[in-house]
Amino acid sequence: MNSKPAQVMVVTPHPDDAEYGVAGTVARWTSDGKEVVYVVCTNGEKGTSDASMKPGKLVRIREEEQTAAARLLGVREVIFLGHPDQGLEDTPEFRKELVRLIRMYGPETVVTADPYRRYVWHRDHRITGQVTLDAVFPYARDHLSYPDLTKEGFHPHKVREILFWASEDVNYRSDITATFHLKLAALRCHKSQVGHIPPQELEERLRQRHKTMAEGEDFHLAEAFHRVEIVW
After folding, report:
1. How many Å apart are CA 181 and CA 199, to the nearest integer?
2. What is the CATH number of domain 8-229?
3. How far apart are CA 58 and CA 84, in angstroms?
4. Residue of 113, 205, 105, 222 whose CA lies nearest to 154
5. What single DSSP character describes residue 71?
6. Is residue 46 predicted with pLDDT exceeding 60?
7. What contacts 108, CB < 8 A, 6 or more positions away?
């Protein structure tokens, strides 16, 4: 196992989802010296309304955008799994990919999309969240799960907490007042996704969203999550 451990792993369905969901908190973590890695599950090949855009070109654009956004936030590494956009499935193979990465990097915290959001919710988001949760518990933990990974040097690992963004059951709010500008700048890196929105409108929209998330707290702007602390 050659990879340096990281305290945080963000598992995101598509390029740009992490910027919407957790970028302000990521910026705070990295400024505090935490090592953060991104795992991007799909290639984002269908994320456009431009009828002239070819999927292969869009994949390259979105990978460059995600890399730029992560660099701006201080993310140490971005891992692109390359699954087809709108094509994620809850399979043993996908789960094993995530188990391998969790064991490889040994994060204390894993962040992903909430799989339990009801009704209108992108299938890739739902499946990413569910498979990530399953990978954390019990598969990454148990030495008899994927014993071949253990033989390869990817030993069992116990994650301490999971944060789910876009949750309808918020129990944890993270102060991003000081890092909101970095979140906004990172989101603007995804020009293929937000380039059509006037800059001031995007900022006002985002600011209002995170002001609402901070209601009841003693800080001004927040990202909101459902947090699960795992006691082993």
Report:
1. 13
2. 3.40.50.10320
3. 12
4. 105
5. H
6. yes
7. 7, 8, 159, 160, 161
Which residue intervals of the chain are DSSP H helices? 17-31, 55-73, 92-105, 123-134, 147-151, 180-188, 191-194, 199-213
**Residues 181-232: tens digit of each pLDDT:** 999 999 999 999 999 999 999 999 999 999 999 999 999 999 999 999 998 8
Tokens of 213: 């998330």
Q: Which residue has the tokens 């460059």?
A: 64
Beta carbons of 20 and 176 less than 8 angstroms apart: no
Sequence ranges of the domains in the chain: 8-229
Taking alpha carbons only, the member of 207, 133, 147 closest to residue 177 is 207
User: How many residues does this entry show for the chain?
Assistant: 232
* 8-22 per-position pLDDT tens digit: 999 999 999 999 999
Side by side, the strands of the sheet bearing 109-113 are 77-83, 36-42, 8-12, 109-113, 161-165, 222-229, 172-175
At 85, list the tokens.
């956009």
Task: State how far the Cα of 75 lies from the Cα of 67, in Å rounded to an integer.
Answer: 9
Query: Cα 2–6–7 angle (5° rounding)?
Result: 155
